[in-house]
């Protein structure tokens, strides 16, 4: 190995060390060293998540009372904090709690800045939950103190297995992402020519007809079939291969008043898109909080339960086999209407089991927010997925909404995505939008996020949450404007990426006995064989996995060749 090779090895080892470096002292909590109980009593406990001990917190008088550790770091970086927490009891009148990872940043001027890095909601006594998140810590600081907060006093808890590290800054983001895109999203295609005829003037062309990676958008169920909305439809069909109905499948839209159903609107849209080869996600069967139908708000748990069962049957009965994914209980990390009404912490798990039982070919997804646009719920989401997996719930994928404001930082977004990917399930970005008034900046931000998602091994597809400012919940995020649905700078960038940059369409001259090698994006293709400019054969094929070989066998004469067959594989 030469000097460059040695340097590379050292760099790789260094990177590895940095990746696992824990900035907390005594992160395994096998002793109390380094940990302080703020306004509480802390002691070593044999009730542990791993190793032999955890740290037990009792006597909490305030929300902030809890286990803490001060760490000396320099500012100007993002830091990530994680810890496992188990609560012992609930406060009066509560049957679960929200647990927060907090930091107290001590600035050089002596001032304290308190920030929440993440919150795990809906925490019940007796199970270990993952709590944490990240925060950008500006320069001029003395130290950071991490602590675990519960809004209610009197709740005792344990902590174990803590982790704090610096989030890697991606100084070479685009190049590294492009390299990953090449490795992950492309495969080798070899096209060779043999047979009894050996004419000159032969060409092979490959046209990519579908992408293996899913690119799609939310659509309005009426506009996508309305004869007066051709510009809207053209924009959509030109670049997208996946769709989700933005609102028409939600329970209030399906059953606005009890017993009166409107399946027709979504069915018309779904059938129309299906006939055009669009693949769809089903959004959503349940959605708690204020998004339940009004007629449910005053119902008791026992009145509600049979309605839930009826609703799954109705939805699956009408749409069975039409959706690749179901968003089963939208945003259930944050909204607990059904859990609270039925006083059943397992109701979402039941919803997953029932949906999968009735529509086995569909994959059941979680779909939530504050997962990568910020770290508010990242660790809670990871925790929930581990819990579902361990409980045998048919959870098939993790939906991440991805609603961004103007601030987009790919380094921290990638780190959050890596945390999600560690669960090992397929990830879909289900609701991408970036609300940014400046068109040029918006174009760059969409490009960065799309490149990050496309380059991430866990991500299998990206859905935009709308594209037209005439039908967008945040019009400043739109890709196209006005009556003609005219692409703006962001829309033009998305078109360029999806139609050209990340698609393969190539033509090559080829002679008898020759092989053309193409590194092409994975997906479905059409092969055209031309002789002196005239198409003499077309053939569909797909390119995936580790690549494909197409062997074209020619017969006929030099002036009138024809393709006998194309061997694929
Ligand atoms: O269609 C009626 C229109 O006839 C009426 O004049 C108008 C007056 O308010 O309301 C229109 O319906 C609104 C509909 O959007 C279409 O614009 C509803 O009131 C409004 O509640 C609805 O908001 C939707 C929201 O979910 C609630 O369902 C947004 O369009 C939709 O983008 C948003 O989508 C959610 C995802 O489902 C879950 N994740 C977050 C995402 C954004 O909030």
TrEMBL record:
Pfam families: CBM_4_9, Glyco_hydro_10. Belongs to the glycosyl hydrolase 10 (cellulase F) family. GO terms for molecular function: endo-1,4-beta-xylanase activity. Residues 1-19 form the signal peptide. Residues 200-497 form the GH10 domain. It comes from the Eukaryota. The active site is at residue 431. The keyword Signal applies. The lineage of its organism: Eukaryota, Metazoa, Spiralia, Lophotrochozoa, Mollusca. This is GH10 domain-containing protein. It comes from Patella caerulea. Keywords: Carbohydrate metabolism, Glycosidase, Hydrolase, Polysaccharide degradation, Repeat, Signal. The keyword Hydrolase applies.
């Amino acid at each position: 190995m030469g000097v460059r090779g040695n340097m590379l090895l050292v760099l790789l080892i260094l990177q590895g060390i940095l990746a696992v470096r824990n900035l907390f002292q005594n992160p395994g909590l096998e002793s109390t060293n380094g940990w302080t109980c703020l306004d509480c009593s802390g002691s070593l406990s044999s009730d542990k998540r791993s190793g032999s001990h955890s740290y037990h917190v009792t006597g909490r008088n305030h929300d902030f009372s809890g286990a803490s550790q001060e760490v000396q770091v320099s500012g100007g970086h993002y830091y990530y904090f994680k810890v496992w927490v188990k609560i012992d009891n609930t406060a009066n009148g509560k049957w679960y709690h929200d647990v927060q990872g907090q930091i107290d940043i001590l600035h050089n001027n002596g001032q304290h800045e308190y920030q929440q890095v993440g919150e795990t909601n809906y925490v019940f006594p007796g199970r270990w939950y993952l709590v944490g998140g990240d925060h950008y810590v500006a320069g001029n600081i003395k130290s950071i103190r991490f602590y675990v907060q519960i809004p209610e006093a009197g709740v005792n808890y344990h902590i174990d297995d803590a982790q704090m590290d610096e989030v890697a800054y991606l100084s070479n983001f685009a190049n590294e992402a492009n390299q990953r895109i090449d490795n992950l999203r492309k495969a080798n295609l070899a096209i060779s020519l043999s047979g009894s005829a050996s004419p000159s003037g032969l060409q092979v062309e490959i046209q990519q007809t579908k992408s293996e990676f899913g690119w799609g958008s939310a659509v309005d169920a009426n506009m996508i079939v309305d004869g007066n909305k051709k510009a809207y439809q053209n924009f959509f069909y030109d670049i997208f291969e996946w769709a989700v109905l933005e609102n028409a499948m939600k329970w209030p839209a399906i059953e606005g008043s009890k017993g009166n159903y409107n399946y027709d609107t979504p069915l018309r849209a779904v059938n129309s898109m299906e006939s055009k080869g669009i693949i769809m996600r089903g959004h959503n069967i349940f959605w708690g909080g204020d998004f339940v139908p009004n007629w449910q708000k005053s119902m008791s748990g026992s009145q509600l339960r049979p309605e839930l069962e009826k609703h799954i049957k109705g939805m699956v009965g009408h749409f069975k086999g039409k959706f690749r994914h179901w968003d089963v209980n939208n945003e259930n990390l944050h909204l607990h209407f059904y859990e609270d009404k039925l006083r059943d912490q397992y109701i979402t798990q039941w919803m997953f089991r029932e949906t999968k039982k009735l529509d086995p070919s569909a994959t059941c997804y979680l779909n939530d927010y504050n997962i990568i646009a910020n770290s508010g719920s990242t660790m809670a989401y990871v925790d929930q997925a581990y819990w579902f997996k361990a409980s045998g719930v048919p959870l098939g994928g993790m939906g991440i909404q991805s609603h961004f404001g103007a601030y987009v930082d790919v380094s921290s977004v990638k780190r959050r995505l890596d945390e999600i990917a560690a669960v090992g399930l397929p990830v879909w970005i289900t609701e991408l939008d970036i609300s940014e008034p400046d068109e040029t900046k918006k174009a760059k931000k969409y490009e960065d996020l799309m490149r990050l998602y496309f380059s991430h091994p866990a991500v299998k597809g990206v859905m935009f949450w709308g594209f037209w400012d005439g039908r967008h919940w945040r019009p400043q995020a739109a890709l196209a404007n006005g009556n003609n649905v005219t692409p703006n700078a962001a829309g033009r960038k998305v078109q360029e990426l999806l139609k050209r940059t990340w698609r393969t369409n190539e033509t090559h001259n080829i002679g008898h006995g020759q092989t053309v090698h193409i590194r092409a994006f994975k997906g479905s293709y059409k092969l055209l064989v031309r002789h002196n400019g005239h198409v003499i054969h077309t053939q569909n094929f797909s390119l995936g996995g580790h690549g494909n070989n197409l062997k074209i066998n020619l017969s006929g004469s030099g002036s009138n060749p024809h393709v006998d067959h194309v061997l694929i594989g």
